[in-house]
Amino acid sequence: MIDPSDFVNSPLRHRLRLDTLVRLRWLAVGGQTAALLVVHIGLGYPMPIVPAFFLVALSAWVNIVLKVRSPASRRITERAATLQLSYDILQMSGLLFLTGGLGNPFAFLLMAPVMVSATALSARNTFTLGALATACATLVAVLHLPLPWPDGTEFRLPPVYSVGVWIALVSTLAFMAVYAFRVSEEARQLADALAATELVLAKEQHLSALDGLATAAAHELGTPLATIFVASKELATEFEPDDPRAEDVVLIRAQAERCRDILRQLTSLSSDEDRTFQRMPITQLMEEVADPHRGFGVEISISASGTGAEPVGSRNAAIRYGLGNLVENAVDFAQSRVEITSVWDEKAVSMTIRDDGPGFALDVLSKIGDPYVTMRGTKSGNTEAGGLGLGFFIAKTLLERTGAKLFIENRPPPEHGAVIRVNWPRAAIEHASKVDGQEISLHKT
């Protein structure tokens, strides 16, 4: 089984490329340089231009050092990224100190490094950078040089207005950081879940492909085994019955014959004429997905009915894994019984999985199918984490890829338990091209 923590806790999950931070810093350097030149030379406003350009040049020097010492494709650790973004906040705070503090209309650029962290780094580092930006905003709101203004006059904001700007800056910083982090985290979870889905399907297809490899091996080994068998048969006539070597020749011949029997079985196992293996009726599919979950103290009953001939489909890894995951989830939470029923007609095939457990928690019933939704009632009636997380998302995704639609609900009172119904168009089940070996890329959907 795929463990979601392998993706969620991946060391590369929150790593930024160094080149990304360097490019953003070059953009900041260009914008700061242009702003200083326009204000000081274009408008003629007096300002401490030398210290201001020193801070801009310092950022350029940092970028040059990073580019020389590290390749552009390198992914840096969260700690290194946090340190670089902390420097950007301090550098911007220094420019604001020299150019009027929060009275400078560019003061809201203090949020930029925190936004970058919210979209790429962990919550802890984003909170750290947000606290640093808030502290710097508080400091430059109180301590700063006058805002550059024409004719040497000094422009000062009223204290109440300065406090209002500070509150607006901090509030916007908090809101935007939380919003950006939640959106980015959901996107990361979805990407991780899709990657896990592809890995599961690839594993299922790999296991099914072993049958084809066995057939190829049988054909390749057939010729040398036939040679060994013929040679041993001829050697048997070369020795007297009491010759001890005759017994060895008979043993070689017997083992060669045994190998030929095994290879014949492997060849027939995946033969195109063996319709039992290549294709399966819906009842056989139900037995196959239910059988691994028997013997765990929960009765699994299977029933099937419909109008017309029973649907017969190809052995599809996505369908088998998806249904197996749903049955496993039902067995995990059932008290004593799980029912798997199938109904079909000339146009559609429906399979329903019912259990007598506590059912789905009402507050997450509408969210089921999203990655990492992990709340469901336990057998005692409480709620606990587990059973409906990444595995359920993978099952839903795989089944929908085969043309299925899933309907999830709780059983009506006074009954209790969950009901999952999977509906296919009959043509989707019986389509011969939907076999295990189909090449699938979930990122193309």
UniProtKB/TrEMBL annotation:
Recorded topology in the membrane: Multi-pass membrane protein
UniProt keyword Iron-sulfur present: no
Keyword vocabulary terms for this entry: ATP-binding, Cell membrane, Kinase, Membrane, Nucleotide-binding, Transferase, Transmembrane, Transmembrane helix
Keyword presence, Transmembrane: yes
Locations listed in the record: Cell membrane
SUPFAM superfamilies hit by this protein: ATPase domain of HSP90 chaperone/DNA topoisomerase II/histidine kinase, Homodimeric domain of signal transducing histidine kinase
Any GO MF annotation of the entry: phosphorelay sensor kinase activity
Cellular-component GO terms for this entry: plasma membrane
Catalytic reaction(s) noted: ATP + protein L-histidine = ADP + protein N-phospho-L-histidine
Class of the enzyme per the UniProt entry, highest EC level: transferase
E.C. no: 2.7.13.3
Sequence intervals crossing the membrane: 24-43, 49-68, 105-122, 129-147, 159-181
Residues covered by the Histidine kinase domain: 216-428
SMART domains named among the record's database cross-references: HATPase_c, HisKA
Principal subcellular localization: membrane
Domain of life: Bacteria
Protein name: histidine kinase
Species the sequence originates in: Roseibium suaedae
